[in-house]
Amino acid sequence: MDTLVDRIRQGDRRCLARAMSLMDSAEPQGRRLRDSIRRHSAQVPWWGFTGPPGAGKSTLIDALLIRLRARGRRVGVVAVDPTSPLSDGAFLGDRVRMMRHAVDPDVFIRSLATHHSPGGLSDATLHCARLLELARFDPVLIETVGVGQSEVDVADVADVCVVVLGPGYGDDIQLIKAGLLEIADLLVVNKCDLPDANRLLTAVRQEFAAAAGTDRPVEVVGIEAKSGKGVDELLDRLLELDRSVRDTGRRNQLQYRRVLGEIKRAAMLTYQRALHRGLEDGAVRELVDKLARGDLSLESAVAQLSATVAGAREDAPD
Amino acid sequence: MDTLVDRIRQGDRRCLARAMSLMDSAEPQGRRLRDSIRRHSAQVPWWGFTGPPGAGKSTLIDALLIRLRARGRRVGVVAVDPTSPLSDGAFLGDRVRMMRHAVDPDVFIRSLATHHSPGGLSDATLHCARLLELARFDPVLIETVGVGQSEVDVADVADVCVVVLGPGYGDDIQLIKAGLLEIADLLVVNKCDLPDANRLLTAVRQEFAAAAGTDRPVEVVGIEAKSGKGVDELLDRLLELDRSVRDTGRRNQLQYRRVLGEIKRAAMLTYQRALHRGLEDGAVRELVDKLARGDLSLESAVAQLSATVAGAREDAPD
User: Which residues in chain A have Cβ-Cβ distances shorter than 8 Å to B175?
Assistant: First the structure.
């Protein structure tokens, strides 16, 4: 295990790729590896990119990759695919552009599309980002689709959270404002060559100006990821934000919150498994029938089920 | 409480509306009402409609409403709005058409957009559908957005599940197939006046023909909801499917599964609340630090936290 960790630190890409596959594994080796990389957590920036399908997140990341490489940075990317392919029919094509960089030894891109990771995609994302850190990629970029509905709450994982919007949402600023204000550090309006996007940019700027005096003002940036217009300025702003995250001690808080999130999700998963074992109990059929007949309240049914689950857990720990 | 239930059964719309607001309430009155309507569960069809944003679900439901009313049926609709407004910028406009029916005394439409319902939108959907049943609406239509990512697994709630697709997903049949096969009883391709939709219909038919010999073959129907083309045939098919759900005893199984789902979600929620109380414990800080330093495995941390939670639950039951 220590050898694997050492090799990854020395830049061995094959070991890194092997370790990434182990991140999804419920086997002892995977568990041990996940436990052992936590302590190596460095002060590397993790930048999250999220937004609706079609906003151009992959195109933006591609543009940032080019510029970060030009500045001599080694860049790791974790791209989290949505759980349902229905939600984003187009992205596979968009992502091809980004994958050009996969042959660059100083870029490592990992796409996560799995549902089988223990604890879901949030944990798989965390583990992969940590491995990229361990392999001394800096920064680590995390791309997720959707806001709010996604299984991965990118704002819980990333140090700096960039929300990317494209034209097509211009009429619903009131609607999107609430969810975005909560998670965005930077709001990027892409495709600013299109009139709709420009209207959106103006409207979003007006809306967010009102929040300028709050705890966490959101900056709004207009770009054109495909031509690269505005991307250098965006990168400079990201690096600045990142310095402030480090200097104010927020990075340490964020690292604490990530580990706390891991424990929470693992505890919920452990309980869920115990619950499913409990539901196989014959007595549950009677419980459901009683509830359906109105002979039992939901509260009482849950209390009875919890007692069964707690009993089963003591009998057969997993 | 019994008076409220009686009045709803007698068709009092104001009482029905009041009861629907109570479905979201964590107060004793809301809990008692939810417990008391479970026993009134009738043999009313619950039809679920799901699919990506823009496929025309609301337009289809509007077209079905017109036809069901013409056949003398009283129709209840539960429209589940997505948790994130980002996912479907257009639907508010589409839904206006459907809302025309809201003035018809034999139609009742309830839109659920809340996040505050105990147990999430799946439970709110269940409760509202049961209330509509109680008020003798028949059938009950349930509209949800998205497949797979949605908080509401419509296939777990509805008797018959209709997946609605529109043009724009034509190239990704392989991608969408897996998720859809699992939940769809009927696959509807809408906007068949458009060439893209027609190509999609042909392609989907070819794909699903392969599944014809399986346990649960999926029927594929092409329609044009806006003009009404194909909607009468779709309605006939829905009514047939529904008869088979009733006659084969599948409806009873589904009702059992719904109540089981309620218990499961309530148990998870109860545990989650206990967990959050447990996380306020000062000892958790030390647990997180140990895990972050690599001095503790995630498994051990969860075991220690679970012990804290179980202890807290005994001290202060909620």
Answer: 85-86, 89
